[in-house]
């Protein structure tokens, strides 16, 4: 049986898990940080959720961080290319950061050598959490999650689910949903959320598992059957949780900012304080709500602790995926 150790479930104990070593380092302190623009690496294609988050933060960066952002796109490999670029080609001085989309950028570290380990990164701040869920097209005959489950039981292996790669929270939710509901869904994997969306609307697939963004931004084209959050998500209040349907499934992802481990304490403190003020700006809160995000801020210690807790609670899942050659 596969169970999802959700990032959300690790928040309650985040403060109890040591992460202090990630927030301090040996790099020399900078007297007047920041003195120039900050490079912000984006590990996903332009126009997607990571890009939207980065650009939205950028609108407020000068006011709260004291510097503009220079954006650099390094898409691919679930965002890990951008993390590697940040670590290998930049000093840990606060002038190179990356958009953190988790657990996408941490699951691959548990599958093999990808160029960095979790402890090489200071998962600096969480800006928001976004839950995953199950979609069908607006014209689908499935009106409820139970309708989908009933049809899947009657037609095992015939209902196609649109997914990204197996090293993603979407895939973990897919597997957990199958297990909890006692069903078998076929899988087709796509390289981006937009491709998954097109496949669903075009009839190539009947189901799509991804985050709540489409339900907020294109509510008339899809039907959001269930959301994998502890309680109903504020931006999709009409969508029931899996728990309301009798399935104890929670799957959330973090949206935040990553930095190299080893930055000076003063730089970490400046960035953490600046981001905390930035995300409290009413304009920022309104802007990211349009992208399907609700502000849920955590600083460096709790964010790093949540990452470590997620890894610890999913060890069995990672071992199963590795044994299957994924």
UniProtKB/TrEMBL annotation:
Pfam families xrefs: TctC
Alphabetized UniProt keyword annotations: Signal
Signal peptide: 1-31
Family membership noted in the UniProt record: Belongs to the UPF0065 (bug) family.
Protein name: Tripartite tricarboxylate transporter substrate binding protein
């Amino acid at each position: 049986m596969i169970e999802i150790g959700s990032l959300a479930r690790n928040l309650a104990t985040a403060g109890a898990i040591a992460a202090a070593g990630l927030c301090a380092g040996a790099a020399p302190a900078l007297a007047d940080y920041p003195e120039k623009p900050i490079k912000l690496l984006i590990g996903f294609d332009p126009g997607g959720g990571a890009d939207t988050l980065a650009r939205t933060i950028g609108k407020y960066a000068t006011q709260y961080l004291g510097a503009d952002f220079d954006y650099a796109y390094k898409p691919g490999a679930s965002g890990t290319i951008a993390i590697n670029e940040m670590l290998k080609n930049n000093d840990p001085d606060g002038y190179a950061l990356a958009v953190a989309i988790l657990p996408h950028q941490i699951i691959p570290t548990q599958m093999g050598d990808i160029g960095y380990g979790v402890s090489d990164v200071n998962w600096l701040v969480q800006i928001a959490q976004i839950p995953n869920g199950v979609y069908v097209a607006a014209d689908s005959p499935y009106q409820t999650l139970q309708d989908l489950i009933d049809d899947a039981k009657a037609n095992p292996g015939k209902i196609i689910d649109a997914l990204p790669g197996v090293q993603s929270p979407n895939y973990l939710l897919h597997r957990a949903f199958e297990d909890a509901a006692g069903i078998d869904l076929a899988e087709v994997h796509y390289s981006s959320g937009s491709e998954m969306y097109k496949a669903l609307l075009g009839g190539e697939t009947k189901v799509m598992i991804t985050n709540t963004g489409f339900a907020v931004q294109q509510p008339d084209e899809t039907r959001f059957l269930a959301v994998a959050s502890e309680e109903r998500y504020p931006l999709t209040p009409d969508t029931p949780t899996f728990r309301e349907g009798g399935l104890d499934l929670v799957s959330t992802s973090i949206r935040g900012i990553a930095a190299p481990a080893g930055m000076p304490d003063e730089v970490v403190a400046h960035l953490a304080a600046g981001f905390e003020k930035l995300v409290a700006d009413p304009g920022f809160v309104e802007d990211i709500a349009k992208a399907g995000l609700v502000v849920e801020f955590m600083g460096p210690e709790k964010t790093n602790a949540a990452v470590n807790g997620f890894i610890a609670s999913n060890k069995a899942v990672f071992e199963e995926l590795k044994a299957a050659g994924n």
